[in-house]
UniProtKB/TrEMBL annotation:
Coiled-coil region list: none
Lipid metabolism among keywords: no
Keywords: Signal
GO cellular component: cell envelope
Similarity comment text for this entry: Belongs to the bacterial solute-binding protein 2 family.
Subcellular location(s) of the protein: Cell envelope
Statement: the UniProt record of this protein carries the keyword Heme: no
Species annotation: Parasedimentitalea maritima
The protein's name: Substrate-binding domain-containing protein
Pfam family, one: Peripla_BP_4
Main location: other
GO molecular function, one term: carbohydrate binding
Signal peptide extent: 1-23
Lineage: superkingdom: Bacteria
Length: 312
């Protein structure tokens, strides 16, 4: 149930921090800086900070989404240097929870974006901004069923097992397929968000199975999947649906390699995340969940404003 939170509602420590630290650095820490998706989050955060002249913004992340210890260290460093607030996309729901708790205990408000923390840690952050990943997974699954029918094999190319966004996105895709069809799921397979790994995995899966469809659940995975399909000469021979919306994936939609790609509001995650922290520091009310949305981009709608507003 969505409820209003204020700085005073969080704890006395946080309320005091909001008064004392009314200006200062807002640290935006994402899963990796080596991704167009996360660079688009940076663009949104940069746009937002221009409206808050009393704050500065820093943007950082590890070299890879799988470098979880490096991301923990970045949050530790932000706390140690006394930032005013943190916008965090946690790479691991368990590993990042203790350091978010430490931020809370240090009086530093945290906005979680994209992927949630493990259940039971909700009191340590003040708002969660994300695509409704379960709803997005269900949309992708229904589009798959509408395209391929209710039988055959569909492979699922995932990224990092157990990440909050992956649990909703892939879990609900698989569940919806199972409840709504007789399609056999092949996988999921985990690329660790490495494009080359996804390419190699998809190449092997295409060779070993007669697929009617395939789903690539995040940007590097979907790119690797799409390139494998093209290299195998199977573009247009099976229904491929990706996730996220960089230039490579847009080209694959236009060429017909992908039927569609589900695009999150990554710009909005950065923009609204920074605004949420600034609002908290100013003593304003924010909601505890902000839906940043998803658009199923196809060849038919890719040039429309609704798609262009989320592509990057």
């Amino acid at each position: 149930m969505k409820k209003l939170l204020t700085t005073a509602l969080a704890t006395g420590i946080l309320a005091t921090a909001a008064t004392v630290a009314s200006a200062g650095e807002i640290a935006v820490i994402v899963k990796t800086t080596n991704s167009s998706f996360w660079q688009n989050v940076n663009k949104g955060a940069t746009a937002a900070i221009e409206g808050h002249s009393d704050h500065t913004m820093t943007f950082n992340g590890p070299a890879a989404e799988s470098a979880i210890a490096d991301q923990v260290a970045l949050v530790e460093n932000a706390i140690n240097r006394g930032v005013s607030g943190i916008v965090l996309a946690p790479s691991d729901p368990e590993a990042l929870a203790p350091v978010v708790k430490r931020a809370y205990e240090s009086g530093i408000p945290v906005a979680i974006i994209d992927s949630g923390l493990a259940e039971g840690n909700e009191k340590y952050y003040q708002t969660f901004l994300s695509t409704d990943n379960c709803a997005a997974g269900e949309q992708a699954a229904q589009m798959m069923i509408d395209s391929v029918g209710t039988s055959g094999k569909v492979a699922v190319m995932s990224y990092v097992a157990g990440v909050g966004s992956e649990i909703g996105r892939v879990g609900c895709f698989v569940k919806h397929i199972g409840e709504s069809s007789d399609i056999e799921i092949v996988g999921p397979f985990y690329s660790q968000s490495q494009m080359a790994t996804a390419l190699n995995q998809t190449t092997d899966i295409l060779a070993a199975n007669k697929l009617v469809g395939i789903f690539g659940a995040n940007e590097p995975t979907a790119i690797g999947m799409g390139r494998a399909i093209e290299q195998a000469g199977k573009a247009g021979q099976l229904t491929a649906i990706g996730f996220d919306g960089n230039a490579d994936l847009q080209d694959m939609v236009k060429s017909g390699t992908l039927l569609s790609t589900a695009v999150q509001g990554s710009f909005q995650m950065g923009e609204l995340g920074v605004n949420a922290i600034a609002d908290l520091l100013a003593g304003n009310e924010i909601t505890n969940f902000i839906d940043t949305g998803v658009v199923m981009v196809t060849k038919d709608n890719i040039d429309t404003p609704v798609a262009q507003n989320v592509l990057y």
